[in-house]
Write a structure and sequence with these properties.
By secondary structure, this protein is α/β, with parallel strands linked by helices. The chain contains 13 helices and 26 strands.
């Protein structure tokens, strides 16, 4: 099994950090990407110059002279003089930019070089910039190059091969990105709340008949190529967050009914998850993998149409699904016992005031027993798990030594008295309680709430009698919980 490791991405400190070349997504993967996967250091000269128009700040890859010959081959735009930005907010970076430099003899020399790079944070925070016409010679746009600027229009030339992390972060007015080469990596667009189009094609669409959210095919293709180290970046892209939220809600809407009891909803979402996901054995041995993320069961799609995840991915997705259905659900960590303790993650759900364990990963491993780890107690789950509540997920969960969070097991729902039989005597126990003739224990109260509405009253006694009658008619020998909530014999 695994523990969840999420690698946080630190912003590069050096002002001339450039991103490495393009990474091509596999043909069967989810965005064709110009991807800043690694960073390289640009060995630029140390001096900054103003171009002859006075608008741009410029650096060169090398600003030395040898035998009177300037050694720089490429020009980098590293900033802008905001006082010279036109009132319409549109600036044009030329293919070749000219700078007047003093040579080693103190003589003024006009140096003209192709612009290949916009350096890190070059236009960051420049709200007066509405549009930048980029040069056809441009290759690299650095990290945060246009972050928090006023940019509303963007057209990337075909020459661009590297777009840096958060290059257009928080450009709130950016609506459409046009590009002539490969599609830019979406992690460049953190916080771009209004980004809706790539090349005038909508990024997130919906099936007009079903309402199912549908990602632009190129975006969908590239999403499976993301790594654990860039995962957090993608979660900050509004259009991807919107898709993930809408897709989770779509699954809930199409697999459950609003009238469903919470346990029925939890079971249906449990079923959807294990039917649509396969365990990724290769990822289980890695310290870092997107298979461990809660979006694994949304974006990590295999060629066979199923999603791919490990236990952290299963439990993270199940939490998203249950929460969207209105069910309190938490991810918890501990160890799974296979002779040796192996890190593992599963869920605890809260229904009608009580907590229960659910392990979708293990239920997916054994098709013969799909509910072996569904709505289980501490005692039941600890036959094969040692849970520690490592990485506290809710302040109610401190440690198992405090009594544990899931003391009950829904397998015993309806078995109210101590004779271990489900019969008329259990319904009578509820009547005694409602007449204040009997003071039940917390365990008995949990078992008596047969309809799981959070209260024990005469409706539970009536429900028990209906279940007894139908179980007898069907010669059903399993538990009333299975009859009602797993096999659906009561039609709920």
């Amino acid at each position: 099994m695994d523990r969840k490791f999420i690698t946080k991405i630190a912003a590069a400190a050096a002002s001339l950090t450039l991103l490495a070349g393009a990474v091509t997504a596999p043909a069967n993967s989810f965005l064709s990407v110009v991807a800043p996967v690694t960073s390289i250091e640009a060995f630029a000269g140390s001096s900054t110059y103003a171009d002859t128009t006075g608008l741009f700040e410029v650096k060169f890859d090398n600003d030395s002279f040898v035998s009177g010959v300037f050694q720089g081959k490429e020009a980098y735009i590293s900033g802008v003089d905001t006082t010279k930005i036109p009132q319409n907010g549109i600036i044009t970076i030329p293919d070749n930019i000219t700078v007047r430099i003093k040579d080693s003899n103190g003589k003024n020399v006009d140096v003209t070089r192709p612009v290949t790079t916009i350096t890190q944070s070059a236009f960051s925070g420049k709200k007066s910039i509405i549009k930048v016409n980029l040069p056809s010679t441009l290759k690299t746009i650095g990290n945060y190059a246009f972050s928090n600027s006023g940019l509303v229009a963007l057209n990337l030339p075909a020459s661009v091969t590297s777009v840096g992390m958060a290059a257009f972060q928080n450009c709130k007015g950016l609506y459409n990105v046009e590009y002539k080469g490969s599609m830019p990596d979406l992690q460049a667009f953190w916080g771009c709340d209004n980004l809706k189009y790539f090349n005038n094609s909508v990024i997130l669409n919906h099936n007009p008949r079903t309402g199912e959210p549908i990602l632009n095919s190129k975006v969908a293709q590239a999403m499976s190529s993301i790594t654990a180290s860039t995962y957090d970046s993608y979660k900050k892209v509004p259009v991807l967050k919107q898709y993930a939220t809408e897709y989770i809600n779509y699954i809930v809407k199409t697999n459950t009914k609003t009238s469903d009891n919470p346990v029925i909803k939890a079971r249906k979402l449990h079923d959807w998850l294990i039917q649509h996901t396969e365990y990724d054995n290769a990822a289980a041995t890695k310290k870092s993998s997107t298979a461990k993320e809660d979006w694994a069961c949304i974006f990590r799609k295999k060629s066979n149409g199923k999603y791919s995840a490990v236990c952290a991915g299963y439990s993270g997705a199940y939490k998203l699904l249950c929460n969207a259905a209105g069910i309190d659900c938490y991810c918890v960590e501990g160890d799974a016992i296979y002779g040796n303790d192996i890190g593992h993650m599963w869920n605890v759900v809260k229904i009608a005031g009580n907590y229960y364990h659910v392990d979708t990963t293990w239920d997916d491993n054994d098709p013969e027993k799909p509910y072996e780890n569904f709505m289980r107690s501490d005692y039941a789950i600890n036959k094969y798990h040692t849970y520690k509540w490592a990485g506290i997920v809710d302040n109610q969960f401190v440690s198992r030594s405090t009594g544990g969070a899931a003391p009950y097991d829904l397998r015993y729902l309806g078995y109210i008295n101590t004779d271990d039989k489900f019969d008329e005597a259990d319904a009578t126990e509820i009547q005694y309680y409602t007449l204040k003739l009997h003071d039940p224990t917390p365990k008995q109260l949990m078992r008596a709430d047969m309809n799981l509405d959070g209260t024990v009253d005469l409706s539970d006694a009536v429900f028990i009698r209906q279940i007894i009658y139908k179980m007898n008619q069907a010669n059903y020998t399993d538990s009333p919980f299975e009859f009602v909530y797993l096999d659906g014999k009561m039609g709920i």
